[in-house]
Amino acid sequence: MSDAVFPRYRGSMEYVCLGCGARFPGDTLLYTCPACGDVFMLEDRDFDQLKSTDGPGWRSRFEARAAGRVPALAGVFRYYELIAPILEEEDIVYLGEGITPIVEASPRLRDMVGVPFAYKNDGQNPSASFKDRGMACAFSFLKWLCRCKGWDEILTVCASTGDTSAAAALYAAYVGPPLKSVVLLPQGKVTPQQLSQPLGSGATVIEMPGVFDDCMKVVEHLAEHYRVALLNSKNSWRILGQESYAYEIAQWHGWDMSDLCLFVPVGNAGNITAVMNGLLKMRRLGIIGRLPRVFGVQSEHADPVYRYYAAPKDRRSWSPVTVRPSVAQAAMIGNPVSFPRVRSLAERMQEEGGEKAFQIIQVTEQMIMDCMILANRHGHIACTQGGESLAGLCRAKELGLIGGNERAVLDDTAHSLKFAGFQEHYFANDFPEAYEIVPDPALANRPRLLAPETARGGMDAKAWTEHAAGLMAKLLDLKAVPQR
């Protein structure tokens, strides 16, 4: 591919420690600072060179790529210069991720909520979750790194509550050698649908007792003592790929993000980190003229970030929490590894856009499930995290935190089918007590048996069809049409 099509610009990527400010070259596997142990952000040391193109120029460039047919630029790398501009075209892995639809709330649902909003359906990524955005970048970097270093084998590892393992296993299976995939899951805390994904992709799947935080400690130890590629959001390359979420929202809205509010489940805090970093990059280059407001959402069963920001500024102190069972499994994390990134970027968001530019909302498990079912009853495909986003919007409106002239985009992180089991619990009213969920009868739905199998008796096919149709007509209160 000629330079006229694939970008010519190449940056110089560095890991920057958020604790001590130390910098390290980007051509290695690093997850925490060797000097102080804090987490990294990746920065392009030559980023200011991008200012030679003005905001309208960047907007035109990204719009032109949207009409192109270059696979390496068809997904998250449409925004190549803002993400990982050291990669060559041959390094980029594209499985159809990114550019997911933004679907307006159905009119009835919009009127019920009282705020105009839309869902960004990231469950329409290849592995059915937003994690594919970060994996596309992380695996492209690993391909580049293996090529540059001449490595003939590297093991990719991750801890997961489901979506991360599915995405990691999928991309590892596609790339193949020298990459191999291992995933570590908390036993019994991953839905059957999500468990089937890494198994189907051929990954080595290991389960252990405990919760996600326990699994995370194990893979972190591996990453610190062995040459493995850690694929959780501590991996800074993943954060870069997930920035594309913010770029796509901006492009969809014609690069005008004024009066827009983004609702994002917090979880391990990687996605909200990526969203804020992407917004700040666009603002720095003049691609957008104004920042939207960002609302992080947490369940009261796993709310360490909410607790931190709920305290007065002069008394804030970070403290992990012990999580309780949550239907928003990807958000059931009591010690998010990306919290230092959130704190740093939230300060920058508020410096640039005012105190209301970043806020955290706490919601109940009941609200999450009610909102998931409510959304899907109105034509959406929300997962439990999508329910959490809608619960956050409803709570923000209840608290008077969102104005009448504002509209919202809600992050629906995965496909509803991944969480069909929780829907079944809701409809059957058999949630374990620890979830603290009592179904709303108006939202519950169950199949109804038309007739027992014995009802057919000795009827032939024609007689049974007429009898069954009559039973349905009675059940549905249908009115017969006159015979001609």
What would your notes on this structure say?
The protein has 484 residues and is of the alpha/beta class. Among the domains are: 102-126 and 239-435, Rossmann fold, CATH 3.40.50.1100; 451-484, no CATH class. It is 38% helix and 14% strand. It has helices at residues 55-66, 80-83, 107-113, 131-149, 163-175, 192-200, 212-225, 236-242, 244-252, 270-284, 304-310, 339-353, 365-376, 384-398, 420-428, 461-475, and strands at 13-17, 23-25, 40-44, 102-104, 117-121, 154-159, 179-186, 204-208, 228-230, 260-265, 293-299, 358-363, 407-412. It has a six-stranded mixed sheet, sandwiched between helices. The chain has a four-stranded parallel sheet with strand order 8-7-6-9. Strands 2-1-3 form a three-stranded antiparallel sheet. The protein is globular, with a radius of gyration of 24 Å. The N and C termini lie far apart (68 Å). The mean pLDDT is 95.
